[in-house]
Amino acid sequence: MVNLRQTPVIFFEEKSFWTTVFCSTLLILSSACQSSESTDLTEAASPAQASKESVSSVPLEIGDWRRVEELIREHAGQIVVVDLWSTSCPPCIQEFPDFVALQQRFPEAVVCISFNCDYFGGKRHPPESFRPQVKQFLTKQRAHFPNILSNVSAEEFFPSIELASMPATYVFDRQGKVAKRFDNDHGYYGKGGYTYQKDVIPFLKSLVEQQQTK
Q: pLDDT of 80-120, one tens digit each?
């Protein structure tokens, strides 16, 4: 004989069990969705955050060649490579990525400094007006080293260092003396001019190895 008094008890126990399972499932699904949304938001914010860090971490100051000389003295004991360039100089733009790569290739022995010569003089276009375009290029190139925008017009600056045109690259040894200047004023490197891969890097590599043995 079935005990009818126990039947309602069994029913409510079964209902309680399935209710618990149902609620637990909803809780797990809800947690999973929240976790997924959190991950998506984090991933979505990462590129913007990385871009913001990239922009803020690329330095650019306005100065003249004396500032370059100060930096060379500050980095005594290291080889300093100074690249003279302009956003209006196609060979400069083409070679700049290889210049940036130097800092990564010789992080301890070499210090890179870029010296921009976009400023051409005139009150209507002061050096500061060239900052946005120069900054944009340096940020894109990830030039995480000292960058100087010249406040002396190119036509005044070039004669002072006896340079006819850009691009030009100075290599200073560990004592701060000019080890070599790369330019194509006399056509030594042909119509294409010098390159970092063929000319600057081999010279720099030999200089690093030479000074490491001393």
A: 999 999 999 999 999 999 999 998 999 999 999 999 999 99
Mean local confidence (pLDDT), 26-39 = 39
> What is the C-alpha to C-alpha distance for residues 133 and 196, in angstroms, rounded to an integer?
24
Residue 127 near residue 151 (C-beta atoms within 8 A): yes
Q: What is the pLDDT of residue 57?
A: 81
The whole-model pTM stands at: 0.74
Instruction: Give the chain as a 3 state SS string.
Output: CCCCCCHHHHHHHHHHHHHHHHHHHHHHHHHHHHHHHHHHHHHHHHHHHHHHHHHHHCCCEEECHHHHHHHHHHCCCCEEEEEEECCCCHHHHHHHHHHHHHHHHCCCCEEEEEEECCCCCCCCCCHHHHHHHHHHHHHHHCCCCCEEEECCCHHHHHHHCCCCCCCEEEEECCCCCEEEEECCCCCCCCCCCCCHHHHHHHHHHHHHHHHHCC
Please name which of 164, 171, 180 lies closest in space to residue 68, comparing C-alpha atoms. 171
Rounded Cα distance, 50 and 46, in Å: 6
- The structure tokens listed for 25 are 């499932």
Residues of the chain above pLDDT 70, percent: 72
